[in-house]
Amino acid sequence: MSSTRVVFLLVPKLHLLDLAGPAQVFSTANDLGYGYQLSYVAEVEEIATAQGVPVKAQLHWPELGPDDLIVVPGWRSPRLSPVPPIGPETKQRLRTHHAAGGSVASVCSGADALGAAGLLDGHRYTTHHDLTEELAARYPKASIVRDVLYVVDDRVITSAGIASGIDLALHLVAVERGAEAAARVAREMVVYARRNGDELQDSVMLRHRGHLSDLAHRVQDVIDARYADRLLLAELAHEVGVSERTLTRIFTNATGLTPLRYQQLLRLERAEHLIGHGATVESAARTVGFEDARMLRRLRARTAEPVAG
């Protein structure tokens, strides 16, 4: 598995949780073997945080490729400063990385830095609810999306306030490393994989893991790990020690889906991701477990439940 580098761009008065939340997700994913390298850069060596704890950063940027990610945590901002706290060279770094095929992300007021670099123009984005009007006025060429946890638009990934950075990072792990990886990270961190307000942007795993049924979670663990396999209902029921009827009832009540439908959505989401990265429909169908592309085409055409990818 190739490693993904995640660079956190630190600015003065940053909020610790804006940084620590997504950093913990990617760090935990790396501890579990999913291949993430974390770096912290800034325009000065020591950053004063909004909570009073100073943090150290490096001044030199690591070499980045198109599979890597830059994250800008937010900073204390009851109101936005007249000028975002990043200089011309940093803005150019953000632009260059995105132009080369890389992804950029922000938490809370970090969207202001992306806007200053020109990366919000023509894109949908979100931010903390206290800042939506100011950012909408500051970047009229962009489209603000209110009351959602995060928005993904052409490798510009923005999240709302503070703790939503965790949701954003879990979504990226789900898309890049699979639903099983994100579920393992969420459970290791003892956080709920919460549903996003914008159905077009959340992952299948995030959308259907926000429940308290241990049995349903155990079944999802099996399906997440083996979504490309042919899984019989009897096999799943035996795995968790209940009847097929009981499994279907509990799983459907918890997730809103049958086990088969959940598996199909996982396959569809992964296939969409592969197709978006250049795979043919036929190749993607085989990779995710369909015998041929006909079923995948039918699901793509008729599904009423949007998927990320």
From TrEMBL:
Entry keyword Transcription:
yes
Q: Which UniProt keywords apply?
A: Transcription, Transcription regulation
Return any one Pfam family short name.
DJ-1_PfpI
Query: Which molecular-function annotations from GO does this UniProt entry contain?
Result: DNA-binding transcription factor activity; sequence-specific DNA binding
Question: Which residue ranges does the record assign to the HTH araC/xylS-type domain?
Answer: 217-298
InterPro entries (UniProt xref): Class_I_gatase-like, DJ-1/PfpI, Homeodomain-like_sf, HTH_AraC, INH-QAR
Q: Does the keyword Transit peptide apply?
A: no
**Which SUPFAM superfamilies does this chain map to?**
Class I glutamine amidotransferase-like, Homeodomain-like
Protein name, as recorded: Helix-turn-helix domain-containing protein
